[in-house]
Amino acid sequence: MSIRTILAAAIATFALSACLDTDTERGLAGAAGGAVVADALGGNALTGAVVGGAAGVFCDDVGVCQ
Fold it and tell me: What pTM, to 2 d.p., does this model score?
């Protein structure tokens, strides 16, 4: 996967993140995004899903996505 595709996916994810209202929705979106990005970069998709899911769940607690 090219860097342009990864960058476009990241931008789309951040743009759509404001549409998600609950921690569960943000967690699921973060897990999916984390898995895709980790796999595209040659990393472990499961680890990416865990990290992305955690970031999605806790992003409003730290004031990133309000």
Answer: 0.69
